[in-house]
Amino acid sequence: MLTATVWHEIFNFANYGELLALVHNSILAGVALGIVGGLIGVFVMMRDLPFAVHGISELSFAGASGALLLGVNVVAGSLTGSIIAAMLIGVLGSRARDRNSIIGVLMPFGLGLGVLFLALYKGRAANKFGLLTGQIVAVDTPQLSWLIVTGVVVLVGLLIVWRPLMFASSDPDQAAARGVPVRVLSLVFMLLLGLAVAISVQIVGALLVLSIVVTPAAAALRVAASPWLVPVLSVTFATVSLVGGILLALGGSLPISPYVTTISFLIYLICRTTSGRRAAVST
Q1: Distance between CA atoms of residues 165 and 192, nearest Å
Q2: Contact residues for 172 (Cβ-Cβ < 8 A; gap 6+)
């Protein structure tokens, strides 16, 4: 009986066709986030910045919570928090040791600030919970517009700096010796990363952004090394995780984040197993 109840909470496909029409905006948002998260995640892995993603998401959460409390645009609040965090990490954390210290200081501050704002907020509890664990049906048209415009800005920015950023990410010393503006590229990338994290928080929540910005790229790097195949696989994995998570979450009564993170983790597991078997065969 308990098993049936739990299963019903996780998967319930009654009236699925009617519910599907309610998440049209969310599916479009999932595709947009899959492209943005998959592409920028490749550079996050190359530059060893997964910890920075988590730090930025905490400040993004604080900004979104503050906006919710003040009754202003939550996306704008999330973007403000992300950009402040990304710039602080980029300017103050040029070296890895300094960067980890800055992130370690920012994370609890951002989380504490966000919890304070949510404690003071007297509105719907679902709005509070959604900022931490994600939501699927509350992506309205203005939110989708913000998300798509911000996503386009990130994609255009990445395309402009793609080649020098790839060079600076793979061998920063050699890139600097050849006159590549490594420091400027680092700040530009942190700004783009801040924007990408801010729009990801709107769907998967502040606590689980890593499943979109880090896990798909980590999986892709397990099975490919080509500079064009890794981004393609990373985008594919991120999009499948997001859209698949949205479609599965629609049938249950749980937040979207458990579905997205589970799909993303399974993809990583498959890729890691595949690369392990390939290495065993070649030796």
Answers
A1: 12
A2: 182
User: What contacts 71, CB < 8 A, 6 or more positions away?
Assistant: none
Report the alpha-carbon distance of residue 224 to residue 199 in Å, rounded: 27
Question: Left if phi > 0, otherwise alpha if psi is -120 to 50, otherwise beta: which for 184?
Answer: alpha
For residue range 37-84, list pLDDT tens digits in order: 999 999 999 998 888 888 888 888 888 888 888 988 887 888 899 889
3-state secondary structure of 279: helix
The residues, any chain, with a CB within 8 Å of residue 225's CB and separated by 6 or more, are none
Alpha carbons 103 and 151: distance in angstroms, whole number:
24
pLDDT of res. 232: 96
Task: Kindly report the backbone phi and psi dihedral angles of residue 44, in degrees, each rounded to the nearest multiple of 5, phi listed first.
Answer: -60, -45
Q: How many CB atoms lie within 10 A of CB 16?
A: 11
Query: First vs last Cα of the chain: how many Å apart?
Result: 50
pLDDT digits (tens, 9 = 90+) for 94-108: 666 677 788 888 888
